[in-house]
Design brief:
The protein has 320 residues and is an alpha/beta fold. It has 15 helices and 9 strands. The protein is 42% helix and 12% strand. It binds adenosine-3'-5'-diphosphate.
């Protein structure tokens, strides 16, 4: 998009309310270009379009929601700040991993694009779920680094379903309904395959600026991914850091077991979007496993979703 496509700030609500709306998930979603968004998020995406100014030294963490964004935030925050904090007295032990890295399009307590602009010193670490084609102007060309994280769509779907049903006691979306909506590409920030494909293709063209990671790859060897990320970010581990086990420390600090053992992950609320969206701190952690989909959908459903994704990604070289 270019900023000219986006209406002035005061007309945004009218613009959004005229877009196609569909119900089915915990909250109705609005379609903008080919993607589906929560209306509050869409408003902030359009605002970011006008207000967000990327910097060449920004580190942007991008992911389809429920792909492990929280984990990626923790990892990159720990890698980038490893000289600043000791592992025994680290901010991640007392602050929610979601809160140490602000989102470009999701203003929370003291974060959000206007505050990001004025208050965060460089180099900034920012997160986003915005599809590449809808990122604010110059984000992909200003020289900043983008880390994209994807995950087996079947596990994303199961994680999404549980997340949606955690919003309120009344939310009770069935697996069957979630499955058919997801297979149509109708999910928050979906279709998932277009989201992944855009970042994947950009990572092939500009590998020094966009790295494409998979959740399963981090699960298999988190220490190796810590090294890989540090190198990509231009801050490779030194020989001395290697000898003192820094990569292992980062991986341990950010592990599911460590983060879920912390009080800050268990109580309270993180994530406010204005006063409109509250999410329990604990909702960002569930099982943290690869392949949990098999406990929630049939083999046949799994194969059907795989076939859809394969077809949508045909020719891209990206496989799950
Ligand atoms: P599950 O619901 O499958 O357990 P996001 O952060 O993008 O919302 O993704 C949430 C998913 O990542 C959840 O998946 C959550 O449990 C998992 N997750 C969060 N922190 C993790 C960590 N440190 N290691 C592995 N998985 C993690």
């Amino acid at each position: 998009t270019s900023p000219e496509d986006v209406p002035p700030k005061k007309c945004l609500d009218d613009f959004i309310s005229a877009l196609p709306t569909r119900e089915g998930w915990a909250r109705p979603l609005i379609q903008y270009k080919k993607y589906w968004f929560n209306p509050v998020m869409l408003k902030h995406i359009l605002l970011a379009e006008q207000a967000f100014v990327p910097r060449a030294d920004d580190i942007i963490l991008a992911a389809q929601p429920k792909s492990g964004t929280t984990w990626l935030k923790a990892l990159v925050f720990a890698i980038a700040n490893r000289a600043r904090y000791s592992f025994s007295d680290h901010p991640l032990l007392t602050r929610h991993a979601q809160d140490v890295v602000p989102y470009i399009e999701i203003p929370g307590a003291g974060t959000g694009h206007s505050d990001i602009e004025s208050s965060l010193p460089s180099p900034r670490i920012l997160a986003t779920h915005i599809p590449l084609s809808l990122l604010p102007p110059h984000t992909t060309t200003c020289g900043c680094r983008i880390v994209y994280l994807c995950r087996d769509p079947k596990d994303v779907l199961v994680s999404r379903l549980h997340f949606e049903n955690s919003f309120t006691k009344a939310s009770n979306i069935s697996m069957d309904n979630a499955f058919s909506m997801f297979c149509e590409g109708f999910s928050p920030y979906g279709p998932l395959w277009d989201h992944c494909r855009e970042y994947w293709e950009a990572s092939l063209v500009r590998p020094n600026h966009i790295i494409f990671l998979k959740y399963e790859e981090i699960k298999a060897d988190p220490v190796q991914v810590v090294r890989k990320l540090a190198t990509f970010l231009g801050i490779p581990l030194t020989q001395e850091e290697e000898s003192s086990g820094v990569a292992q420390e980062v991986a341990r600090l950010c592990s599911f077991e460590m983060l879920t053992s912390l009080q800050v992950s268990k109580v309270g609320v993180t994530h406010h979007v204005g006063n409109e969206v509250y999410v329990r701190s604990s909702s960002f952690y569930r099982k943290g496993k690869v392949g949990d989909w098999a406990n929630h959908m049939s083999q046949e459903m799994g194969e059907k979703l795989d076939a859809i994704v394969e077809e949508k990604l045909k020719g891209s070289g990206l496989v799950f």
